[in-house]
Design goal:
elongated
Amino acid sequence: MVIMKKIVIAATLLFLPVVLHAEEIGSVDTVFKLFGPDNKIVIEAFDDPDVTNVTCYLSRAKTGGLKGGLGLAEDTSDAAISCQQVGPIEVADKIKKSPKKGQVVFQKRTSLVFKKLQVVRFYDPKRNSLIYLTYSDKVIDGSPKNAISAVPIMPWKE
């Protein structure tokens, strides 16, 4: 029985993505719901965990109603991103060594188990820029909806 319990816990953790902390900046209601919270667009900010002084702002749809209030609703795949340099940037060697391989810098669960919103960072050495791609994926069927933001790495003047 103990082994089965450990297997269930491990399987559950496998499906829950690592969620980096995002600070909610604000939101606007888009659809009134009589029961439960309204549908809304949420604006969140997070700092790139591997590149100091890059902050990304993400807007995403959040489903309300009774299911949304209980965390059981599936959010739509609509999202937008804007990333900014907020200080001097230093790009680590591990990022420079694999520019074509994107690195996940943020994930947010958008359904109970199988869907998440991701932000993946790429490095463009030719243009000395960081590119952030946001998209939604689903275990069974992904979404082509996506958005990008580019941050040119420039000297910082205070």
